[in-house]
Fold Lysozyme.
Amino acid sequence: MESTARTTLRALLATAAASALLAVVCPASATASPLAPAHPEDDFAGAQIRKHEGTDPGRVVELSVAEDTLGMDVSSHQGNVDWPKASRDGAKFVYIKATEGVTYTNPNFTQQYNGSYDVGMIRGAYHFALPDVSDGRTQANYFIDHGGGWSKDGRTLPPALDLEYNPYGDTCYKKSPADMVAWTRAFSDRVRERTGRLPTIYTSTSWWSKCTGNNGGFGANPLWIPRYGPEVGTLPNGWARQTIWQFADKGTLPGDQNRYAGNQDGLRSFATG
């Protein structure tokens, strides 16, 4: 009986030791990672802009075919897209959400990215930034490794970085303006190192002013700006013009409606770099 008791005690001690070791190697927080976004299907370019800044119905924005080129942006929110119809309805380009943070990839990305290409559109990928879950370089690597690359084929837009209001908490991801600028610079530099292109930056003037201190040091990056009204309005500091204007959150095309500031030849040149 005593031998059995000693055996049981040794087994209990071994189990406790193993549990303690596991707790050190794999802390409880690792089983429910705070890095994983809770609702990534709702985090798409402009989702938080509309929530925080609203829309201006104004007058209908008329597209000048001679000067501007119609496009769109989509994410898993749209699911599988009818690309032949979108092409017939006038879309010439599209940005597609590829990733978010360092854990999420768009489950519809392959259908959206390849499908748009197959009907002749110029397409590119964007990353929804969560600057509070990792440094910029890490997120840039995750993005590029999961669809955010670029090729000089005249059919691929430069990778894009979506910087907007935090859908999970503090507007500026608990970063000071200097820290946000450093994060954005690290992301941008890493994308350029790996693809040869500076990423397009998607952001609103209001968010940029608040969260970067209206930094003027990113004018070399193409600007993709949301403004749901009849005019682009004031641009963020550092940019003299926008490359792409997201002018409406709905319209004839799936997802958000966009205009490239130039004709189709200009769009192809932008894609080629």
